[in-house]
Amino acid sequence: MTKNRIVNLRTFRALARTNRARYRRFLTKLENGPKRGIGAIVAATEKKVWKEVDCLSCANCCKTMTPTFTKTDVNRIAKHLDMTPDAFRAKWLKQDRGGDRDWVNKKQGPCQFLNLKDNKCSIYAVRPADCSGFPHLAKDFHDFVHIHKQNVEYCPASYKLVEKMYESQHDFVKS
Description:
Elements (H helix, E strand, L loop, with lengths): L8 H24 L5 H13 L9 H5 L6 H10 L4 H8 E3 L7 E3 L8 E2 L4 E2 L7 H5 L7 H11 L4 H13 L7
Antiparallel strand pairs: 1-2, 3-4
């Protein structure tokens, strides 16, 4: 990926496929390694990532993934759309097939609330908590390593974070 903020999805997808296994192994080492000091390294690296990635030039998360909608999310968004929570769920959501039966988008990507012309969310002010926290770079790293393992394939910001950490091979990773 280039050093500018505009994301080329074709280039990103090729890099993600090429490096997926390597970066997942690296994340497993981080997950199983010492936790001390990693938060500061992630925070410093994250600042560099956002200088290189512009989410509005990408929106790959909204195009290929679905957030989990909490009860609070459903209530907030339904109110914003002047609907009842039940009507909102009936129109836009389905329960995931997994054991926890989370509410997710009925439609397989792109998200029904994504404007494909400008990659902006039509419910941005009231978007699900899952979306507002994405890609979870600033969260406690060890609690979110499993998320980064997944997101490295979908999110250029996650990919860049892991790429930069992998390239620098900080001494928190013991080979």
